[in-house]
Design goal:
By secondary structure, the protein is α/β, with parallel strands linked by helices. The protein folds into three domains: about 5-100 and about 130-170 and about 260-400, TIM Barrel (Alpha-Beta Barrel), CATH 3.20.20.80; about 410-610, Rossmann fold, CATH 3.40.50.880; about 620-675, Golgi alpha-mannosidase II (Immunoglobulin-like, Sandwich), CATH 2.60.40.1180. Strands 7-6-5-4-3-11-10-9-8 form a nine-stranded parallel sheet, sandwiched between helices. A seven-stranded mixed sheet has the order 14-13-15-16-23-22-21. Strands 12-25-26-29-27-28 form a six-stranded antiparallel sheet, with helices on one face.
Length: about 675
């Protein structure tokens, strides 16, 4: 099986049952090595009761199946695979390489990663390895070969799970092995030192390199370092971790025809992997997502992550590999999910394209770092509210099984870039308050609150199927990527671009001639100076809105002024503009507009673009449409503590009731099916 082009058919292995037709996969991680084998039979009985269809095992099995350098023991893994297969439960089989065993780092301490200060990390946690280490890669390749040789044709194995959350802890290593690998990567990228010196701008601060051996990773420096060096190191690091995946992927593709994937971490607190580069190597796009209660609106970030994961799947179905039934263990305050929140969170993922929902983990651990992480089967056992919620969720997923394989409908797109995230958040910029993901979340939140579903797409993507494209703070953009937006507008689309976009090229080199560089012609304006605001500062706009953090001196050319600054450093100057360009229009937002006014602004742009906004949209209600060959499925998720009225008409799948207008109870989830004539 080849990756990327077969994502839909690969996921159908998990969502098709010979007995019952289509279904949504429902699963979990299981770590039987943590439990006495006497518990295994009871676990499998309860898995069947809960409707579990697929279980991830051997994710952290390295020390169990290879207890020494030349010793392999598959007896335990054989036993649990046999029990699961006998119960009719499919297996997502880990290669077991997620965390090297103590014997490997004891024999080869050189595999341990080193941070930017030169401090080596010790074993005792997980992922204690340098991604560039040839010793680690050889050991991982050997283990993957043994596992794939033994189980590659086992009928229970439905999916291969390479490693686990690659790069979660060790994405950046600064050791001498990594330094050598970084130089090799740079040689491949630039070919010559002259090319590297030009790209990095090493004429600044006497940084010119005369030999490759002089080039290092961006280790700790006394002052701010070279920004392009840091950017390239981020690119290199993402590629190196991907290569760890590919070492094992090549083994699996040689020894088995079962689909291959690994679990991404599309989430607010992980930014080290450029998943646009990773996605083509996956047969199934899978993501791990946990509510982050350090954010102001965790459920909206969940929706953004789900839409981004769908974008990585090129609009097709995807798999939620991990989520939590309740609290996690790694945040400063591990907030439990309130009654109904598990249902809302899960159905938000399904609404936005997930055809399978899995959890970490099956049985809550009694020992180890994650012992207070929630699970399908909690410490309290089956006599618990959580277990009853799990059963309720399983029944609800069964009631919407028919929508497996359908696709989310979106007329708007939001451009998102991991490279721009890395580059925007470097130091020595106009304001340390400007953070790429916060600006992206702000624009996404405004669309979410307006009831506008978006596809999250990569820079340079084909935009021809959309009416509206939103471009939040795309600081770094290539010429071809900017041209894709320009061509979209020229062909009749509407774009909304926000401040600090188009500023630099792929080498973090400022585009001269006025900001926003790559988009000045499209926007019909230029900016000759930034005026970031003092900490806590704000500016009034003449439409009643408030701007924070940012202002700038916008000089309109062909652009019309929609909103102006009323006070602050630039009273009377433009704050929001619109430019007719070709058959479309391009809007520009020059400050961080307050939440309600930003939603209003995007609604105006969407209406101009002809985007269909649901007529029954209600505040706090998430409304998403999935479309099948002959039916539409409208999801309604009420995130408020008050009832809401929506104009849904059709068959409500969770209750089985026919509806023509519907009251949505506080915190409730409903899915309305409407037959469609083709």
């Amino acid at each position: 099986m080849s990756p990327s082009s077969t994502v839909g058919s690969a996921l159908s292995v998990l969502t098709t049952s010979g007995e019952t037709g289509s279904r949504l996969a429902f699963g979990c991680d299981y770590n039987p090595e943590q439990w006495d084998p006497a518990v295994w039979a009871e676990d499998i009985r309860l898995m069947r009761e809960a409707g579990v269809t697929i279980v991830a095992i051997n994710v952290f099995g390295w020390a169990q199946i290879q207890p020494g350098p030349d010793v392999f023991d598959f007896s335990g893994l054989d036993a649990i695979i046999g029990l699961l297969h006998g119960a009719g439960i499919g297996i997502n089989l880990g290669t077991g390489t997620a965390s090297p065993p103590p014997w490997l780092s004891t024999r080869h301490p050189e595999i341990l990663p080193v941070d930017a200060d030169g401090i080596r990390a010790w074993p005792g946690g997980r992922q204690a390895y340098c991604p560039s280490s040839p010793v680690f890669r050889a050991a991982a390749e050997r283990l993957a070969t043994e596992v794939a040789t033994r189980y590659g044709s086992h009928p229970a194995v439905q999916l291969w799970h390479v490693s686990n959350e690659l790069g979660c802890h060790n994405a950046h290593c600064y050791c001498d092995v990594s330094a050598g690998a970084f130089r090799d990567w740079l040689r491949a990228r630039y070919e010559t030192l002259d090319g590297l010196n030009a790209a990095w701008g090493t004429a600044f601060w006497s940084q010119r390199y005369g030999a490759w051996e002089e080039v290092l990773p961006p280790r700790r420096t006394l002052s701010a370092g070279n920004p392009t060096q840091a950017l390239d190191f981020a690119r290199f690091s993402s590629d190196e971790v991907l290569e760890c995946y590919r070492v094992e992927e090549r083994v699996l593709r040689r020894l088995t025809t079962v689909p291959v994937t690994t679990n991404f971490m599309v989430t607010a607190h992980i930014r080290t992997q450029d998943y646009w580069q990773w996605a083509p190597h996956m047969d199934v796009i899978a993501n791990d997502h946990y509510l982050d209660h350090r954010l102001p609106d965790p459920h909206q970030e969940l929706s953004f992550a789900a839409d981004t994961t769908r974008g990585l799947a090129e609009g097709g179905p995807w798999l939620l590999m991990e989520q939590a039934t309740g609290a996690v263990n790694w945040q400063p305050r591990n907030i439990a999910k309130t009654p109904g929140e598990l249902m809302r969170n899960t159905f938000a993922h399904v609404a936005r394209g997930a055809d399978g929902v899995c959890f970490f983990q099956w049985r809550a651990s009694a020992q180890g770092t994650e012992k207070f992480h929630s699970a399908l089967l909690p410490h309290a056992g089956t006599d618990s509210r959580k277990w009853q919620e799990v059963l309720e969720l399983s029944r609800a997923l069964g009631s919407v099984r028919e929508l497996a394989g359908t696709r989310v409908v979106a007329e708007a797109a939001l451009i998102f870039s991991w490279e721009a995230w890395w580059a925007t958040d470097l130091d020595s910029h106009p304001s340390e308050e400007l953070r790429y993901l916060e600006q992206t979340h702000a624009m996404y939140r405004a669309l979410w609150e307006a009831g506008i579903t978006v596809d999250v797409v990569k820079p340079g993507a084909d935009l021809s199927g959309y009416r509206l494209v939103v471009v939040p703070s795309l600081y770094l953009v290539r010429d071809a990527e900017a041209k894709a937006v320009t061509d979209f507008v020229a062909d009749g689309g509407t774009a909304v671009i926000t401040f600090f976009s188009g500023i630099v090229d792929e080498d973090d080199r400022v585009r001269l001639g006025g900001y926003p560089g790559a988009f000045t012609t499209l926007l019909g304006l230029h900016v000759d100076e930034f005026f970031p605001l003092a900490a806590g500062g704000s500016v009034a706009l003449d439409d009643g809105a408030t701007g924070t953090m940012w202002s700038e001196n916008i000089v309109p050319g062909t652009a019309e002024v929609l909103v102006a600054f009323e006070d602050g450093p630039l009273p009377g100057s433009p704050a929001v503009t619109r430019n007719a360009f070709g058959r479309g229009s391009a809007w520009y937002v020059g400050t961080a507009v307050d939440r309600p006014h930003l939603s209003g602004l995007l609604v105006r742009a969407a209406q101009e673009a002809g985007v269909a906004i649901p007529a029954d949209h209600a505040d706090g209600v998430e409304s998403v449409l999935r479309r099948g060959p002959d039916a539409d499925y409208r999801f309604y998720i009420n995130h408020t503590d008050a009832a809401r009225t929506v104009g849904a008409a059709g068959l409500e799948l969770l209750t089985g009731a026919a509806v023509d207008g519907m009251e949505l109870p506080p915190g409730a989830v409903r899915v309305v099916k409407t037959r469609r004539e083709n």
